[in-house]
Design brief:
The complex is a heterodimer of chains A (348) and B (603). Helices cover 47% and strands 16% of the residues of chain A. In chain A, a hairpin with a 4-residue loop joins β6 and β7. Chain A has 348 residues and is α+β, with helices and mostly antiparallel strands. In chain A, α1 packs across α2, α2 packs antiparallel against α3 and α3 packs antiparallel against α4. In chain A, the strands form two sheets. In chain A, strands 3-2-1-5-8 form a five-stranded mixed beta sheet. In chain A, strands 4-10-9-6-7 form a five-stranded mixed beta sheet. Chain B has a two-stranded antiparallel ribbon. In chain B, β3 and β4 form a beta hairpin. By secondary structure, chain B is mostly helical. Chain B starts with a helix and ends in a 14-residue tail after the last strand. Chain B has 18 helices and four strands. Classes of the chains: A alpha+beta (348), B mainly alpha (603). Chains A and B meet through α1, α2, α3, α4 and β7 of A and α6, β1, α10, α11 and α12 of B.
Chain lengths: 348, 603
């Protein structure tokens, strides 16, 4: 019923607007085309200048209202460069924006049709055109130079001492694997994936490097220590988005990708800095991946080395979870024994 | 047949006796040949426009539906269940339906409205009229072009009604999501229908584009050299070139996708585990599709915006009573944009793991494209400087176009710089950027053109007051909707999310999202007002009393108020000058058909 009423009200408003519009057209015919045009010109000229003024005030107001809600300082060392570049670009484009918008609306207002006014025949002027070709070209060259400098830093190889974390996307969550003590991830293959046997990633247990790998539900990182994400996907394309660290990289099935950064603040420090007790570093999926795309959330905990070590010590290796019968003392079991154990695990 | 032949045989034409000349065959037009399978470019233009308007209403309505979800995630709207059925159980849109709506909104607006509805309409209407031709080079191909578009529309429309729903992987349709029915319900029959429809659409675009190019190159009237053409024609020319060269690449990408779906190939698939089993596909690259897609996808945004640029140039010059400033620079920048458009596609792929060295070239070329765009903006502003501007709805929309083109164009400089793109990629910043620069701007160009050339199409005016209301609400509304989205994007808020409430990083914009959704509804209602004005004016609008209501110089205003098939009843006029002699030598305007006087100053 209320829906019906709402539709009725909208239709009524339409009819009223339409009747006014129709009447104003009759009036303008009565007044004569010229006079009607002068009148509507004055009104629209005024509205254009009003739009400019209110618009610029609105831009300022909107900025005041929202600037506290967008991310503060970058939480990674590498992100600082991104932020600097954003501010430089904002300054350049902001100046151009204000100048061109003011010129556009002020000229439109100032040179509106007036009795006796003649337009100025001004078809071209080479000097002007060269000026406004060269100036943007120089400004853009500066931006390209700055941008590429940061780009090559951001995409450079991770330092040799960087920690390694593997992040694998699947519909609709992130699978996180650490390389364990040896610092190397074991081989994986998609045809080895067997969720029932605690092998969501498809780790190849024949590779001894895999035996100390452990999986986690959250990514834990050490503050101030560079970390390299090895990113993959086991179904469709996902994207590891790390807004606070200013980082992003697609997770593509079949094509591993990487990104690296150095976290600057622990989660605890960020809670204090932002004044938000619920602050969490989140991994968002930034590439449309299906119906659950919006819920594909991962959590990153940045902590001190001691807290991190304590956490690592508590993590069981995935090998031990997948092979509950295997004694932890004999991790290098041969392949044959392995497969029987997998079967055992399956039955279990 | 060439125009030369037409001109030489004008005697025959006037008597309707030219056996090879079907232009004046108005005597046996049946309803079918006049309104349905018409070969008159003006009627085909109207067909494109009205089909485009219908699609625009559907596409925009979809955005209202998903904005309801974004603005009011906890509310229920029982009426939604009555129109969407199990897609909105209990009055709340399901995630599957949300993604289907988002995908269809993009597809419909980008391809069916802003490509077919915009360039299809005005290329068809204006090319023969402004270059001085009786019709397109091939009227039959032109007719086919519309009907292929119609077929594409039918298939796309049908996909909305299948049990598993339409395609829902985003308008870019990236595999493997779009390749695997197990990955998403929309990737079942929905994607097949989507691909079929798009293939038909590509055929339609190629038929149209080849026609536009050959008409412009071969059928200009006597005296109409390339540099005497209005900028509209130049922009349609470059648009057609872009489409003809890039749409086939898109089609090849779609065919490979179709084969991956049904023929067991692995062009895009590798190492996939889905629905509890590992697929046998090996060695494909999901990124290959993105290269093929964006090789069209990026030129596509220029296919959308170039016609708007051309028409805005024309409307601004006519209504400022001044020549367009820097005519040759305008053509040069159109040309530069057209070339660069093919060399920037991978800037959509900075975060796919693209080789950073390769990425550097795309940064350079992408930012380079800002130079011709800047030239155009400065030239438009100089065109209105010291003019004598009449604020018709068309000229207001043109000023609005320049404003939104600046706002959206400048944020392109942010996104084109790969380091910034890492942070802003796939966030609301991107949504704000491309909606302002190619959504709102292109629509403003289209509205300007509709208000400006409506008298040529129907021999009547649209209602001005409704036009002004339409303009002001749309301009203010567009900025209110998209400006704050930049801030959401700066916070890293990802696009294509059904619900943000469980995220601590993005849930601070609840009130803002509600505000945006509210404005969306008002702006949508205002567009309905425009649609009403359009259809009402076709039948009841104020009638034209003169052939040249805007006092414009170009050829279309030398045709009768309601031109028949063939456009000019007698000889096609000869052209002696460019199309921008406004306020020259103390005269308000000098039509293109007037010979250069002995004492006239050169421009």
């Amino acid at each position: 019923m209320s829906g019906f009423l709402a539709v009725l009200v909208v239709v009524l408003i339409f009819i009223v607007i339409f009747q006014i519009a129709k009447a104003s057209e009759y009036v303008s015919i009565l007044k004569g085309e010229k006079k009607a045009r002068q009148q509507s010109n004055r009104i629209n000229g005024f509205l254009l200048i009003a739009f400019l003024v209110l618009g610029l005030i609105g831009v300022y107001y909107c900025n005041n209202l929202l600037k506290g809600k967008i991310l503060g300082e970058s939480a990674s060392v590498q992100g600082e460069g991104v932020d600097t570049l954003i501010y430089v670009t904002l300054a350049i484009t902001g100046v151009v924006f204000v100048i061109t918008q003011i010129a556009l609306f002020v000229f439109a207002f100032k040179y509106q049709e007036k009795e006796g006014q003649k337009a100025f025949y001004f078809p071209h002027n080479n000097k002007l055109e060269v000026i406004w070709t060269v100036i943007p070209a120089i400004a853009l060259t500066v931006l390209v130079a700055f941008g590429l400098k940061h780009w090559f830093q951001l995409t450079s190889d991770a330092p040799a001492d960087a920690a390694v974390v593997e992040v694998t996307g699947k519909q609709f969550n992130w699978l996180i694997r650490y390389p364990g003590k040896d610092g190397q991830l074991g081989r994986k293959a998609n045809n080895l994936i067997d969720p029932a046997a605690s092998n969501e990633i498809g780790i190849d247990w024949n590779d001894p490097l895999s035996h100390d790998d452990f999986q986690a539900t959250e990514v834990h990182l050490v503050v101030g220590k560079p970390v390299k994400f090895v990113i993959g996907s086991r179904d469709v394309i996902h994207d590891v988005g790390l807004p606070q660290f200013r980082m992003k990289m697609d997770a593509v099935p079949g094509i591993p990708t990487t990104l690296w950064f150095t976290p600057k603040y622990t989660t605890k420090q960020m809670k204090e800095k932002t004044g938000n007790p619920d602050f969490t570093y989140e991994i968002s999926c930034d590439q449309m991946c299906g119906a659950g795309h919006y819920s594909m959330r991962g959590v990153i905990v940045v902590e001190t080395q001691e807290e991190y070590d304590a956490w690592v010590a508590k993590q069981p290796t995935q090998y031990s979870l997948a092979h509950p019968a295997a004694a932890p003392a004999a991790p290098a079991a041969d392949a044959k024994a392995d497969s029987t154990k997998t079967v055992a695990a399956n039955i279990k | 047949m060439s125009n030369e032949a037409t001109l030489h045989s004008q005697q025959e034409v006037m008597h309707g006796a030219g056996a090879h000349d079907h232009h004046d065959h108005e005597h046996h037009d049946s309803f079918i040949s006049k309104y349905v399978f018409s070969m008159d470019h003006k009627m085909i233009a109207k067909q494109f426009l009205i089909t485009g308007i219908i699609w625009a209403i559907i596409g925009a309505f979809f955005s209202v539906l998903f904005r309801l979800q974004l603005g009011y995630p906890d509310a229920t709207f029982p009426w939604l269940e009555s129109i969407l059925g199990h897609w909105a159980k209990g009055g709340r849109i399901t995630p599957e339906a949300y993604y289907a709506l988002v995908t269809m909104h993009g597809t419909i607006l980008v391809f069916f409205v802003l490509t077919a509805g915009l360039s299809g309409t005005f290329s068809n209407l204006l090319i023969p009229l402004q270059v001085g031709a009786r019709d397109m080079a091939s009227p039959f191909m032109n007719c086919l072009s519309y009907w292929f578009f119609f077929l594409a529309s039918l298939v796309m429309m049908a996909s909305l009604f299948v049990q598993t729903g339409p395609a829902s992987g985003g308008w870019t349709m990236y595999p493997p999501l779009s390749a695997l029915g197990d990955a998403s319900i929309g990737s079942k029959i929905g994607v097949d229908l989507w691909l079929t429809s798009m293939a038909l659409f590509v055929v339609s675009q190629l038929l149209g584009g080849l026609n536009y190019i050959s008409t412009i190159l071969n059928m200009r009237t006597k005296g109409m050299s390339m540099t005497k053409m209005p900028l509209t024609i130049w922009s349609f020319f470059f648009t057609a070139v872009l489409g003809v060269l890039s749409f086939p690449v898109l089609l090849s990408g779609f065919i490979l996708l179709l084969m991956d779906r049904h023929a067991g190939t692995s062009f895009y698939l590798s190492d996939i585990f889905i629905a509890g089993k590992a697929l046998a596909n090996e060695g494909g690259s999901a990124i290959l599709y993105q290269h093929l897609f964006w090789f069209l996808g990026h030129p596509e945004v220029y296919i959308i915006i170039l016609p708007a640029m051309g028409m805005v140039s024309e409307v601004l010059a006519v209504n400022s009573r001044k020549p367009i400033f820097g005519y040759l620079a305008m053509i040069g920048s159109l040309f530069a944009i057209c070339i660069l458009a093919f060399l920037v596609w991978a800037h959509h792929m900075f975060v796919t793991g693209l080789n950073p060295f390769l990425g550097a070239f795309f940064v350079l070329l992408t930012l380079l494209i800002a130079v011709p765009s800047a030239i155009k903006v400065f030239n438009w502003i100089t065109t209105i400087w010291k003019g004598n501007i009449r604020f018709t709805p068309a000229s207001l929309f043109s000023i609005g176009f320049v404003s939104t083109f600046i706002s959206g164009g400048l944020t392109g400089i942010w996104l084109g710089n790969s380091s910034i793109d890492i942070h802003l990629h796939d966030t609301y910043f991107v949504i704000a950027h491309f909606h302002i620069v190619m959504g709102v701007s292109a629509f403003f160009g289209m509205f300007a053109a509709i208000y400006h050339w409506f008298p040529k199409m129907y021999g009547r005016f649209m209602n001005n007051t409704l036009g002004y209301i339409h303009f002001w609400i749309t301009l203010v509304g567009a900025y209110l909707i998209f400006w704050p989205m930049h801030y959401e994007g700066m916070a890293g808020m990802p696009r294509r999310y059904f619900d943000y409430s469980s995220w601590t990083s993005f849930n601070q914009f609840e009130g803002l999202n509600q505000f945006i959704s509210f404005v969306v509804i008002i702006v949508f209602a205002t567009q309905l007002l425009f649609v009403f004005n359009f259809f009402y004016s076709i039948f009841k609008g104020r009638k034209l009393t003169t052939m040249n209501p805007w006092k414009a110089t170009s050829l279309e205003w030398t045709t009768p108020i309601n031109p028949g098939h063939g456009n000019w009843p007698g000889e096609i006029p000869e052209v002696h000058r460019w199309a921008y002699d406004y306020s020259k030598d103390g005269r308000d305007f000098i039509p293109q058909t007037e010979p250069i006087g002995p004492n006239e100053s050169a421009h």
